[in-house]
């Protein structure tokens, strides 16, 4: 389980996350909405452990361990992984090498790559000249190799064409154990109980909701997390009234 309590974070001298409380239980996936610059990426980067995001208050617990000041590599080993919005290009490191590094064990690289239609990229340098959609598939391949328990997705649909969006959406559903249909042998309830993977997905468009069964939606507005409810309801509210009106219920309550 991921538990964030009263988290406050500073970046470049500015407080960008204010008193964040968030709980993602085993098997749950949440989506995060919010206007540009509201702090969504910062929240994911803080959970992943990037040191420039300075925690000035509160704490982050993962699997019962206080990871608030734990280095990134240790968080990754504990089971946290992230798909970045704009990951760096790494010259001299091929996709097949980074897949091996992410996996930290023997994995069938070609088979994994086939799942995201990425076999022909295996010998190219990481993200070198990749299109927006190719970067997303590269990120998914690395997560498939790492197979973490908590996955953070920063705008996985952005830059992906309409044909590939199904591939991206279905792969995320698979990673988060959200793709399984009930069968005669396994009821829906039993399937839900058996899920262990946790996810937090940033989306502006909500396309991902067509592929991944999401448990909860949240809105981050000016560094404050609010409106924890049905994600489609949030999307409708933002579409009709805008972010400011959508979060007003929470602002008024405070
Ligand atoms: N290195 C930095 N120095 C100063 N300010 C920064 C730095 N990086 C990010 N910020 C600022 O922090 C704020 C939050 O940025 P963040 O990327 O978390 O927003 P976001 O909600 O993910 O936005 P978007 O939807 O546009 O991706 C923004 O105002 C941004 O300009």
What count of helical segments does DSSP give? Answer: 8
Spatial ordering of strands, largest sheet: 6-9-10-3-11-12
CATH class: Alpha Beta
Structural class: alpha/beta
How big is the Rg? 18 Å
Contiguous runs where pLDDT drops below 50 for at least 5 residues:
none
Helix coverage percent: 25-40%
Bound molecules: adenosine-5'-triphosphate
Shape: globular
Secondary structure tally: strands: 12
Overall mean confidence score, pLDDT: 91
Distance between the termini: 27 Å
Which CATH architecture would you pick? 3-Layer(aba) Sandwich
CATH superfamily: P-loop containing nucleotide triphosphate hydrolases
Portion in beta strands: 25-35%
> What's the CATH topology label?
Rossmann fold
- Elements, N to C (H/E): EEEHEEHEEHHEHEHHEEEH
Main sheet, how many strands, which sense, barrel?
A: 6 strands, mixed
Give an account of the 3D structure:
It is built from 8 helices and 12 strands. It is α/β, with parallel strands linked by helices and 254 residues long. The mean pLDDT is 91. The protein binds adenosine-5'-triphosphate (ATP). The site of adenosine-5'-triphosphate has 11 residues, from helix 1. Adenosine-5'-triphosphate binds next to helix 1. GO terms for molecular function: ATP binding; ATP hydrolysis activity. It holds the Pfam family ABC_tran. It comes from Syntrophobacter fumaroxidans (strain DSM 10017 / MPOB). Keywords: ATP-binding, Nucleotide-binding.
């Amino acid at each position: 389980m991921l538990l964030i309590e009263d988290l406050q974070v500073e970046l470049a001298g500015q407080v960008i996350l204010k008193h964040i409380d968030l709980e993602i239980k085993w098997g749950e996936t949440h989506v995060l909405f919010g206007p540009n610059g509201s702090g969504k990426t910062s929240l994911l980067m803080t959970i992943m452990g990037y040191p420039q995001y300075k925690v000035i208050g509160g704490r982050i617990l993962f699997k019962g361990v206080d990871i608030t000041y734990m280095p990134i590599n240790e968080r990754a080993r504990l089971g946290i992984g992230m798909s970045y919005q704009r990951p760096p290009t790494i010259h001299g490191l091929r996709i097949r090498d980074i897949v091996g590094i992410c996996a930290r064990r023997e994995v069938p690289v070609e088979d994994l790559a086939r799942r995201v239609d990425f076999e022909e990229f295996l010998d190219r340098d990481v993200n070198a000249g990749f299109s927006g959609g190719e970067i997303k598939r590269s990120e998914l391949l690395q997560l498939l190799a790492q197979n973490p328990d908590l996955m953070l997705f920063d705008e996985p649909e952005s830059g992906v064409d309409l044909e590939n969006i199904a591939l991206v959406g279905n792969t995320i559903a698979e990673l988060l154990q959200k793709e399984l249909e009930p069968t005669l042998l396994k009821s829906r309830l039993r399937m839900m109980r058996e899920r262990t993977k946790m996810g937090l997905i940033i989306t502006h468009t909500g396309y991902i909701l067509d592929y991944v069964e999401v448990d909860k939606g949240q809105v981050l507005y000016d560094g404050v997390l609010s409106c924890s409810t049905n994600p489609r309801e949030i999307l409708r509210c933002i579409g009709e009234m805008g972010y400011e009106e959508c979060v007003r219920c929470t602002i008024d309550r405070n």
